[in-house]
Structures are given as C-alpha cells and as structure tokens.
Amino acid sequence: MAAQSEWYSIIGSSMSGRLAGKVAVVTGGASGIGEGIVRRFSTEGARVLLADLDEANGTAIAAECGAEFVTLDVTSVESWQALETKTKADFGRLDIMVNNAGIVSNLDITAVTLEVWQRLINVNLTGVMLGCQTAISLMRGHPAGETGSIINMASSTSYLAIPDVAYTTSKAGVVGLTKSVAVHCANEGFNIRCNSIHPGATLTAILKTAIEQMPEVEEACKRMSPLNRMGTVEEVAAMAVFLASDEASFCTGGQYAVEGGTVSQHPRM
Ligand SMILES: NC(=O)c1ccc[n+]([C@@H]2O[C@H](COP(=O)([O-])OP(=O)(O)OC[C@H]3O[C@@H](n4cnc5c(N)ncnc54)[C@H](O)[C@@H]3O)[C@@H](O)[C@H]2O)c1
C-alpha cells in the first residue's frame, strides 16, 4: 500500500486532469472520506464545492486545495435549494454530485429510539435522495445536454449487517435508491449516471476515536478484510474519480466495493 505522500506524488506526476473542467459537489467533505475526495478531485482539475455542516474544517480544507466551502445540511430542502441556486449562478452547470455525508448511531434494535432512528435515516438516506434530486435538476440544465455522474456513499454494511440497525438499514436503502435513480435517468434518455461506492472499514475520525477508546477495535476492523488491514480514504477517492470521470461512461446503477474483499470472505474461514 502506498503511503499518503506517495499517493499524491503518483497522482500529481501521472494522473492529474481526469476531471479537468468538471464542476463537483461533495457532501460531508469536511472530514474523512469526503475530505479525501475533495482533495483528489481538486488534484484532478475539478472545481469543487465542499458542502458540509462543519464550517471550520470545511473552510480550512477548501482553502488548502483551491475548493470552495458551502454550508449544507443534507436533511434540509431549503439548504439544497440554496446550493442549487449558487451552483447555477456561479458555474452554470454541475457534472458530479457525491452524496457522502453520513453519521452512525451505534444503537441496536432494542436500544434505538424513534428520534435517533429518524435523525440517522434523514441524514444517511433522505439526505442522499435530496442530493440526487438536486443533482438531476442541475444536470438536466447542463450546457452539453442532460449529463452528469451521481455517486452515493454506501458501505459494506449494505450487504453485511452490523448491530447499528439504523445505519445498516440506511446503507441497504442507498442501494435501492441508487438503482432507481439510475434506471429513471436512463429510461428518460438522460446521460446521467448514478452509482454507489461500498467502503469497508476505512481509517477516518470515527474509527480513530473508537480505536483510542477501545484498542481491540483496530484488530477487529483489520480482520474484516482478507487483506488484513483497513482501507484508506485515498483508496475510496480513487474509485470516486473513476466513477466521476468519462472513463465510467457505461457504468450506471452499479455497486462498487472498496473493501479489501470483506464481503467475499466467509466469516468463519
Ligand atoms: N469510515 C468508514 O469506515 C466507512 C465505511 C463505510 C462507509 N462509510 C461512509 O462514508 C461516508 C463518510 O464517512 P467518514 O468515515 O468519512 O465520516 P466522517 O465523520 O469523517 O465525515 C462525515 C462528514 O459528514 C458531515 N455531515 C454529517 N451530517 C451532515 C449533514 N446533516 N449535512 C452535511 N454534512 C453532514 C460531517 O460534518 C463530516 O464532515 C459516510 O456516508 C459513511 O457512512 C464510512
């Protein structure tokens, strides 16, 4: 596995420009996987709107990589409308929407409350649906015709359940949502593709905190993959670049795993 500095030198020397001239929105771009996607998309020549609730981190990351920060609450229709208006006014187009913002609850079916359930489903599933609606509306007005790429962040938990019932349900839901959007756009004759990415355990702030509190979590996360390690945000971002680029022109309605074989391995082997 390449170290982070090696990744960016590989990208910088031989792969930049795969998204040249494209306009992208990345939700949840102020941390973790979303941050990795913002950084990589910027390196690849995209003009990126980093959309997040976290203004402090979002503004700092955007400034570092030449992106722009916008405050967005993915659960709010008004917030999405403001983003749509801004994107139209500033760029006149949208090429890529990454619906990445997500939260966890760590509560099983016996412990989850209606309030926690509704909050998580609002962020992880309804937020993605509103992001798809906004993307389609903007992409239908693209100067090159009805075209664009929507990428929804799902999880290996779309297929393999964990006790966090609202999270597992939300990520299974993202698969159906993604396929429905893909099929609708194709049937309408739009060149608007919609795919989901399914990361396995990826070393971001959520997991770093859990490992600090419970060191055994690190080994457990590594064992999820037959490669015996966690993924990195750069590895997930690499898949996002492919799906966002014109190289993925025949990919729609698909589920793209970045999980080191996690769901391929029988758990008792
Ligand atoms: N880290 C993993 O192991 C892993 C594995 C599989 C899938 N995922 C998925 O990847 C995505 C990113 O996860 P991460 O680990 O980078 O998380 P993270 O906590 O590091 O980042 C999530 C970002 O989303 C933002 N956010 C939360 N609620 C929001 C809202 N209502 N509106 C706008 N922004 C909001 C947060 O401010 C934060 O910047 C999530 O959808 C997560 O479910 C993560």
Question: Care to describe what's here?
Answer:
- There is one protein chain.
- The protein has nine helices and seven strands, in the order αβαβαβαβαβαβαααβ.
- The model has no long low-confidence stretch (mean pLDDT 94).
- Helix content is 48%, strand content 14%.
- The protein is α/β, with parallel strands linked by helices and 269 residues long.
- A seven-stranded parallel beta sheet has the order 3-2-1-4-5-6-7, sandwiched between helices.
- It has a single domain (20-201, 233-258), classed as 3-Layer(aba) Sandwich (Rossmann fold).
- Bound molecules: nicotinamide-adenine-dinucleotide (NAD).
- Nicotinamide-adenine-dinucleotide binds next to helix 2 and helix 7.
Helix/strand layout:
Elements: H1 4-15, E1 23-27, H2 32-43, E2 47-52, H3 55-65, E3 68-71, H4 77-91, E4 96-99, H5 114-140, E5 147-153, H6 165-187, E6 191-199, H7 205-213, H8 216-223, H9 233-244, E7 255-258
Parallel strand pairs: 1-2, 1-4, 2-3, 4-5, 5-6, 6-7
Bound molecules: nicotinamide-adenine-dinucleotide.
The site of nicotinamide-adenine-dinucleotide has 28 residues, from helix 2 and helix 7.
Distance between the termini: 24 Å
Range of helix content: 40-55%
User: What is the number of independent domains?
Assistant: 1
What oligomeric arrangement do these chains adopt? single chain
- Strand % is 5-15%
Mean pLDDT: 94
As for the CATH topology, it is Rossmann fold
Write the element-wise H/E pattern from the N-terminal end onward.
HEHEHEHEHEHEHHHE
Outline the biggest β-sheet: 7 strands, parallel
* Class inferred from helices and paired strands: alpha/beta
Number of continuous helical runs: 9
CATH architecture: 3-Layer(aba) Sandwich
Instruction: Supply Rg.
Output: 18 Å
Number of strands: 7
CATH class: Alpha Beta
Widest sheet: strand order?
3-2-1-4-5-6-7
